[in-house]
């Protein structure tokens, strides 16, 4: 199966970069296609899903651009290459993917399109396969949902937010919807066109997965994941009613939230040493894939880029005595991060989502949780409350926020319910709560900053040894990434972001 994919991937890479003269003269489609539905299932699992390989980590790839990260300086010269490489992204440099700057990184363009290719192969070949019809339609739905997820990531990397300007005019990313190889270059579709395709794929995928439901574990996309993604997409599109409806449809089936009081309060020296879930008990997981196995040695030994003070302050303090005596109120401040209290001074080696399965080197799993559905539904109600002034929307939003927070706060203390009725103050509180809960998970913070109006944030880059500092402010035009210069060179139809 891998050999089949390598042949097709070669053709797709030629499409992405230069075209494909002569490719089909050498290999015919009939010679490389599998024959069974189960063959395509294996191809889907191996080549449409992101795997745990470090180079394929995609779920929190945008955090370095946000206000959740700060520069900690260079403390060890042995890590200078890494420190300086990340500088280009941390300071939002236009040359971050150019040869003269940070250099080409396949994760920001090539990788998502490779995964889209895997989805397209499955979608194009399914009807020619022999096998169980229900499985065929289930895999079709799975491929549609996966493809929509990659396009949602891509359009939020390279296109303006849906709520900024005219999405029907703003350039998004090219839509490639078949595995066919043609000697042509593709221009960028508009943001509206990309969102339209995402919505269509999700609606179709949701229908197919609902009608052909297979009881699989949480590592596979199912109909609840499709509904959850629809809620996320409609939130970005500011379609509050449908964002609420799809979040509600998930929570009616799976309202589970993990009570952090049931989690061991350890003081891990590394992110992989704290296991929150066993593989069989994903209380609030809708769908998960591995984010990264563990922090690489350079981050664990010399944390160049850390969780920002601004982010950590939202949780309140976390120190060794508080962990030992269990006096923390908001438990997330300690469990969602990797602290090291055994050094001469408390050290936050990095930050991560607390969701971990198995322990050892399994590391962090990220994706979609019911916590996000409570937040999405709450935001929909708050937004409607801000416009209409209907107190019932306020109460529903507060119910969702308090339900989430009860599962995150230390039960040694009596939980104090949030009861904010001023619309603007409630929305501000909600934004902070969303940031607290989703920090380090997928690319939520990046997308949220974009749809909140792309506020100016500052990053300060400095070397501990020299004391030299560079401070940059993230302005609106930097809320879209530059397309790598190599991609532009090989496909001049791709308009560069200004």
The percentage of residues in β strands lies in 5-15%
Structural class: mainly alpha
Low-confidence stretches: 1-31, 267-281, 293-301, 343-347, 353-363
Helix content: 40-55%
Number of helices: 19
Radius of gyration: 23 Å
Q: Which term fits the overall shape?
A: globular
The overall strand count is 8
Amino-to-carboxy terminus distance: 41 Å
Largest sheet descriptor: 2 strands, antiparallel
Strand order of the largest sheet: 1-3
Q: What is the H-and-E element order?
A: HHHHEHHHHHHEHEHHHEEEHHHHEEH
Q: What's the overall average pLDDT, rounded?
A: 83
Written overview of the protein:
The protein is mainly alpha-helical and 498 residues long. It is 45% helix and 8% strand. It is built from 19 helices and eight strands. The strands form four sheets. Strands 1-3 form a two-stranded antiparallel ribbon. The longest helix has 26 residues, at 133-158. It is globular. The relative contact order is 0.14. Residues 1-31, 267-281, 293-301, 343-347 and 353-363 have low confidence and may be disordered.
Question: How is this structure best summarized?
Answer:
The chain is mainly α and 498 residues long. It has 19 helices and eight strands. A hairpin with a 6-residue loop joins β7 and β8 (469-474).
């Amino acid at each position: 199966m891998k050999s089949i994919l390598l042949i097709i991937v070669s053709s797709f890479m030629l499409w992405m970069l230069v075209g494909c003269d002569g490719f089909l003269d050498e290999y015919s489609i009939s010679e490389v296609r599998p024959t069974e539905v189960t063959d395509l299932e294996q191809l889907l699992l191996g080549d449409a899903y992101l795997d745990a390989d470090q180079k394929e980590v995609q779920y929190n790839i945008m955090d370095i651009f946000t206000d959740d990260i700060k520069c900690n300086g260079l403390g060890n010269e042995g890590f200078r290459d890494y420190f300086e490489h990340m500088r280009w992204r941390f300071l939002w440099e236009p040359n971050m993917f150019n040869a003269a700057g940070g250099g080409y990184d396949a994760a920001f363009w090539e990788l998502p399109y490779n995964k889209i290719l895997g989805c397209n192969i499955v979608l194009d070949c399914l009807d020619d396969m022999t096998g169980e019809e229900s499985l065929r339609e289930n895999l079709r739905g799975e491929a549609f949902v996966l493809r929509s997820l990659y396009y949602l990531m891509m359009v939020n990397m390279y296109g303006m937010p849906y709520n900024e300007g005219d999405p029907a005019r703003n350039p998004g990313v090219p839509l490639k919807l078949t595995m066919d190889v043609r000697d042509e270059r593709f221009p960028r579709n508009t943001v509206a066109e990309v969102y339209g395709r995402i919505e269509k794929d999700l609606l179709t995928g949701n229908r197919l997965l609902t009608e052909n439901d297979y009881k699989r574990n949480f590592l596979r996309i199912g109909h609840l994941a499709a509904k959850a993604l629809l809620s996320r997409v409609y939130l970005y599109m500011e379609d509050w009613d449908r964002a609420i409806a799809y979040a509600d449809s998930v929570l009616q089936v799976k309202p589970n939230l993990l009570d952090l009081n049931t989690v061991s309060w350890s003081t891990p020296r590394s992110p992989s040493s704290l296991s929150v879930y066993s593989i069989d008990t994903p209380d609030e997981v809708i769908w998960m894939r591995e984010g990264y196995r563990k922090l690489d040695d350079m981050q664990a030994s010399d944390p160049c880029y850390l969780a920002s003070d601004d982010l950590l302050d939202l949780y309140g303090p976390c120190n060794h005595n508080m962990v030992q005596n269990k006096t923390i109120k908001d438990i997330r401040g300690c469990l969602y991060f990797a602290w090291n209290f055994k050094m001469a001074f408390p050290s936050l080696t990095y930050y991560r989502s607390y969701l971990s399965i198995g322990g050892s080197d399994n590391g962090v799993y990220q994706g979609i949780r019911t916590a996000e559905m409570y937040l999405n539904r709450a935001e929909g109600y708050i937004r409607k409350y801000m416009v209409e002034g209907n107190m019932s929307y306020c109460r529903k939003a507060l119910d969702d926020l308090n339900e989430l927070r009860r599962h995150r706060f230390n039960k040694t203390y009596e939980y104090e319910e949030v009861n904010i009725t001023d619309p603007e103050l409630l929305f501000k509180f909600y934004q902070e709560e969303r940031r607290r809960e989703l920090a380090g998970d997928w690319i939520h913070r990046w997308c949220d900053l974009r749809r909140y109006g792309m506020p100016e944030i500052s990053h300060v880059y400095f070397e501990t040894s020299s004391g030299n500092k560079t401070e940059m402010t993230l302005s609106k035009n930097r809320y879209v990434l530059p397309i790598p210069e190599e991609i532009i060179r090989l496909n001049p139809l791709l308009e560069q972001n200004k």
